[in-house]
Amino acid sequence: MNHLPQTTQRRLQKIPQTPSVWEGDRRLVAGLRGRISGSPEQEECIIWVDGSQGVVRAMDVAASDMGPEAVVRTLLRAIETPHSPAQPARPQKIVVRNRELQFFLRGALQSLDITIDYAPELPLIDQLFRSFEAVEDTRPPALPENYETLLIQTAHDVAKAAPWDVLADYDIISVEFNRWGIDTLYFCVMGMSGEEYGLILYRSLESLKQFRQAALHEKSTHQLEQAFLAQDCWFLNFEFADDLEEEFDEYDDYPYEDDSDGELTLPRYGSIHPYEGIRPFLDEDEARIVYYAIQAFLRFFERNQLSLTDEIIDKIQKHHRFTDMSENGQPKTINLKVSTLPELTAELLQGLEVEEEEEDRVKFPLGDDLIPENSFLSLGMIPWNTLEQLQHSPKTYYPSQHATPKGEGMPVVVVQTSRPKAKQMIQTLQEAGNLQGLCFNPGEDPWQELIYDLGILQTGDNSLFIFGEFMQDDPEHQQARKKWEQRCQQTGGYCGLVVAMGVTGNSRGNPNLKDMLAVFEAQYLEPKALAMGILQLTPEFDFE
């Protein structure tokens, strides 16, 4: 295929053409290494620049072995949805520096009335990449020269001591400075869970507590990210060679050390602050504070390790002295007080216990196999006199919760499927103790950036089943749910589930009385009643 679909051609032809000249190219991302994650040897930056306005209209990163189709995809974005402040437009001319790409674009864009030219140099893109390289060259070093060797050795000592084998993230250790503008630092050791290894040096107790509180209660990716960036701390993180073989070139400033298990570790120092975000370097003042703080922590850990292994760590308080030569070359004694904080640990553990209790309320995983495939699902209402007829019908299964007739009728969720599948669904609900509750719980798909209402049924044995996913930004759904919830308020919280047959017949979407094989009365539940928070869609991958 060497041309665009006719429908795409017609859509692009409707976009106004301007007398502009664009430059397009693909280059290795080495010059952008500080701005783009990935492997510079295997990735290229595809870029389209409007020479008339001097703006980048579109930019993507693609694998180096990807064909010229990737360049066309980025170009179409540059035409239809360019980066702000550019507006949708077709250029009069395109200039590239690759003959093969020139011929390919001529074939792909032949219906768009765009001239495709060749030039051995592209001044705008060349200048842009030179500026990227200049920024990279002026980026501050990860560690200041005076402390680089000391902090690298300190990181190696931390990896060798492996404090995460002894201390959990709630076993907080304080280091009192009372100098250099620092009062007390609070050490949190990460790694006992086997996920992330390192030390977090909180600059305030308030920041430590706020982050832990947010981490326990915030469920969405966006909320957790906000909580993470709101921390006020320095950090030392470790990553192991098995995960980083392709990324070592980015950190030439760091020598790679063997830890006690013979694996390479890559230490990373940095800072997090609500105003700065994540900063992957330390200045000299910060490096001095972090160095002595970690040295005091290590000395305390090594000399009290036996006591720190206790399940409940008692109050331990020690003073450690160091000689600092950084001020005018004159030796100066630094006295740092290092302490365990049993009361703070107990407070943090109490928060964990409360969270675990809330999680234990959901004792069964969400099932997604209750509603038959190809069912017709709707929110509606059944008048009370109709419900009375169904309740006395020998053909309708009707387990009642003794709902009192209030309002015009009972709000219901209607599931219409085939007769055999309806019978099987009814049997499953009967075996689970019939229906107990129904709610709409917030959910998100972080991969697609979608927010939706997740319909959930709770059965008598506390099993939970998904009955539907509804987009939150769908106005039709929002209107139907709003009306449905108003009716639930009128009935005092009673609602119902109708299981009907006839999905392929004339009554599809509007089942008759004879189609309704079961009516389950239930209580309408607020999401907090199930204490599930915002549910995330987790993708499943099959590997052969």
Describe the structure.
The chain has helices spanning 6-13, 69-80, 99-108, 123-137, 145-161, 205-217, 221-229, 241-244, 284-303, 305-308, 342-360, 384-391, 419-431, 475-490, 527-530; strands spanning 21-28, 43-50, 55-63, 93-96, 115-118, 173-179, 182-190, 197-202, 233-240, 257-258, 264-273, 277-279, 317-324, 332-340, 366-367, 376-383, 409-416, 435-445, 450-459, 464-471, 494-500, 516-524, 535-536. The protein is of the alpha+beta class. The strands form three sheets. Strands 6, 7, 8, 9, 10, 11, 12, 13 and 14 form a nine-stranded antiparallel sheet that branches. Strand 2 and strand 3 form a beta hairpin. Helix 5 packs parallel to helix 9 (284-303), helix 6 runs antiparallel to helix 7 and helix 6 (205-217) runs parallel beside helix 11. The model is unreliable at 33-40, 241-264, 358-364 and 538-544 (pLDDT under 50).
Q: Name the shape in a single word.
A: flat
Q: Helix tally?
A: 15
Given helix and strand content, the structural type is alpha+beta
Per DSSP E runs of 2 or more residues, the count of β-strands stands at 23
**In percent, how much strand structure appears in the residues?**
25-35%
Largest sheet: 9 strands, antiparallel
| Unreliable stretches | 33-40, 241-264, 358-364, 538-544
pLDDT averaged over residues? 81
Please estimate the helix content.
Answer: 25-40%
Gyration radius, rounded:
32 Å
The span between the termini is: 31 Å
